[in-house]
C-alpha cells in the first residue's frame, strides 16, 4: 500500500475556454478568432458552447463532490473582466461542497485587444489580477498567475499551432519575457491585494538525448530560473525585470505529460517550437503512446520532481496537470493504468525527498483540446457533445477510492 502525506490535495483541473462555452456572455479572446479561422482547429471546432459549464457548473460541482475531490483547479477567463460574477457563484458552490478553489488567471484566452509581443500586456495583466482578487480573493485557496507560458510563447507565437497563430523564431523570446514579467507584476498585485498563496504553473518536460542541454534550457530552465532563482540562462531579460519576475512564491505548479527524446542528426532542421534546435531530431515515443502520440513515461515524473527539489529547493510542488487522452469509452482502463503509474511515480519522488503537496488530474471532463478540438478526450468524466450529458468514467470511480484511501 502506498500512502500520501496527510492533507495531500487531490484534485482535478480544467480551463475556461476549454469547458465554459457561453461565448456570447463575454468579450472575444484570441481563441475565438483562431478557432473561427478555417483550417486552424480540427473540423472547425470552437469553444462557443464547449461543455456549457458556464450554465451547468452546479451539476459539475456535484460530480466533483461525488468523486470526492478535495480541490478544483479552474481558470478565469480574462475576457469576462467586465463581469466576473460567474466565478463568484462557482467559488461559493465549491466551498459549499468542501472543495478548495485553485484559480489560474491566465490559461491562454487572451482578450483580442492584447498581444503578448507588447510589454503593456504584462501591466494590463496585473490590473486584471487585482480585479479578480477583489471578486473572489477572500475565498480562493491558491492563485496561479500563468498556465504553461512555454506553450503560449512557442506554440502561440513560434509554430503558430495555437492562437494567435504567429509563426516566428524571434517572437517567442519576446513573448516569454513579457509573460514572465506578467507573472512578476501579477504576483505583486495579488500580494498588494492581500493574497497569501501564489504560484505559477509550468509545463516541464525532461529531455533525453541532448548532451548540449539546449532543449532543457528552452523547454524548462528559461522559465524556472527567472522565476525561482532570478537568473536568465539565455541572458535576454534585463536585470530590473528579473527582479520583478523573481517574486517569492508559495508553490510551483508542474504540468507533466511525457518526455522529449532527441538524437543528434546534422541533417535535421530541428523543431519550430524550439528555435535553434537544427541538428537535433525528435524521436518517436517508446512503447504504446496515448492518443496524443505522447510516450507514457512515469519515470520522467519521478526524475523531474526530484530534480526540482534538488535544483530549486524550498518551493513546495504541486502537480497541477497530469492525465491522458484515450479512446472514447467510459470503461477507460488505459487511463486508470496511466494515472496509477504516475501516482506511484509521484509517491516515489516524495520518498526521495520531493516536497509534493498535491495532484490535479487533467481533466475533470472531456473538453476542447485546443488545435485538436473535441477529438481528444482527457476527462475522467465523459461529455456527450450532442446532449452535453456527463457520465463518470471508470477512472473517476477509481480516483474516488484513491482519494478516500489517500493512496493506492
Ligand atoms: C496542457 C494544457 C491543458 C491541456 C493539456 C492536455 O498543455 O495546459 O489545457 O490541453 O495540455
Fold topology:
Blueprint: E1 9-13, H1 16-19, H2 30-35, H3 53-67, E2 71-75, H4 85-96, E3 100-106, H5 120-136, E4 142-147, H6 149-159, H7 171-193, E5 198-203, E6 207-208, H8 214-229, H9 239-245, E7 251-255, E8 260-264, E9 280-282, H10 298-311, E10 317-322, H11 333-351, E11 356-362, E12 381-383, E13 390-392, H12 394-405
The chain binds beta-D-fucopyranose.
Beta-D-fucopyranose binds at residues 15, 18, 147-148, 151, 203, 255, 321, 362, 369-370, 378.
Could you please describe the fold and organization of this structure?
The chain has 408 residues and is an alpha/beta fold. The chain has one domain: Glycosidases (TIM Barrel). It contains twelve helices and 13 strands. It has helices at 16-19, 30-35, 53-67, 85-96, 120-136, 149-159, 171-193, 214-229, 239-245, 298-311, 333-351, 394-405, and strands at residues 9-13, 71-75, 100-106, 142-147, 198-203, 207-208, 251-255, 260-264, 280-282, 317-322, 356-362, 381-383, 390-392. The strands form three sheets. An eight-stranded parallel beta barrel has the order 1-2-3-4-5-7-10-11, surrounded by seven helices. Strands 6-8-9 form a three-stranded mixed beta sheet, with no helix packed on it. The chain has a two-stranded antiparallel sheet with strand order 12-13. Helix 11 links the parallel strand 10 (317-322) and strand 11 (356-362). The mean pLDDT is 98. Bound molecules: beta-D-fucopyranose.
Amino acid at each position: 500500500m502506498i500512502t500520501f502525506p496527510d492533507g495531500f490535495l487531490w484534485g482535478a483541473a480544467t480551463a475556461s475556454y476549454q469547458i465554459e462555452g457561453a461565448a456570447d456572455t463575454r468579450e472575444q479572446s484570441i481563441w475565438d478568432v483562431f478557432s473561427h479561422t478555417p483550417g486552424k482547429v480540427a473540423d472547425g471546432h470552437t469553444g462557443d458552447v464547449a461543455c456549457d459549464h458556464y450554465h451547468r457548473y452546479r451539476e459539475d460541482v456535484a460530480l466533483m463532490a461525488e468523486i470526492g475531490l478535495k480541490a478544483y483547479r479552474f481558470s478565469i477567463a480574462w475576457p469576462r473582466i467586465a463581469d466576473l460574477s460567474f466565478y463568484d457563484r462557482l467559488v461559493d458552490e465549491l466551498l459549499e461542497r468542501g472543495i478548495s478553489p485553485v484559480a489560474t488567471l491566465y490559461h491562454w484566452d487572451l482578450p483580442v485587444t492584447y498581444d503578448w509581443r507588447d510589454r503593456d500586456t504584462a501591466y494590463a495583466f496585473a490590473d486584471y489580477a487585482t480585479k479578480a482578487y477583489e471578486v473572489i480573493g477572500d475565498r480562493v485557496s491558491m492563485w496561479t498567475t500563468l498556465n504553461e507560458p512555454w506553450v503560449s510563447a512557442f506554440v502561440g507565437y513560434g509554430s503558430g499551432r495555437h492562437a494567435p497563430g504567429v509563426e516566428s523564431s524571434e517572437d517567442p523570446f519576446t513573448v516569454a519575457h513579457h509573460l514572465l514579467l506578467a507573472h512578476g507584476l501579477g504576483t505583486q498585485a495579488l500580494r498588494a491585494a492581500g493574497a497569501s498563496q501564489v504560484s505559477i504553473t509550468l509545463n516541464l518536460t525532461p529531455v533525453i538525448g541532448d548532451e548540449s542541454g539546449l532543449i532543457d534550457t528552452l523547454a524548462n530552465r528559461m522559465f524556472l530560473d527567472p522565476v525561482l532563482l532570478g537568473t536568465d540562462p539565455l541572458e535576454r531579460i534585463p536585470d530590473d525585470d528579473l527582479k520583478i519576475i523573481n517574486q517569492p512564491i508559495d508553490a510551483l505548479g508542474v504540468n507533466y505529460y511525457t518526455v522529449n527524446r532527441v538524437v543528434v542528426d546534422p541533417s535535421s532542421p530541428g523543431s519550430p517550437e524550439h528555435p535553434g534546435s537544427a541538428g537535433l531530431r525528435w524521436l518517436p515515443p517508446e512503447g504504446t503512446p496515448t492518443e496524443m502520440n505522447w510516450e507514457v513515461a512515469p519515470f520522467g515524473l519521478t526524475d523531474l520532481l526530484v530534480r526540482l527539489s534538488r535544483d530549486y529547493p524550498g518551493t513546495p510542488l504541486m502537480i497541477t496537470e497530469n492525465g491522458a487522452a484515450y479512446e472514447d469509452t467510459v470503461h477507460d482502463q488505459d487511463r486508470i493504468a496511466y494515472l496509477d503509474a504516475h501516482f506511484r511515480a509521484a509517491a516515489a519522488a516524495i520518498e526521495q525527498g520531493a516536497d509534493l503537496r498535491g495532484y490535479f488530474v487533467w481533466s475533470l471532463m472531456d473538453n476542447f483540446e485546443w488545435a485538436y478540438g473535441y477529438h481528444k478526450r482527457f476527462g475522467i468524466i465523459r461529455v456527450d457533445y450532442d446532449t452535453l450529458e456527463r457520465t463518470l468514467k471508470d477512472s473517476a470511480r477509481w480516483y474516488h477510492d484513491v482519494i478516500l484511501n489517500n493512496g493506492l
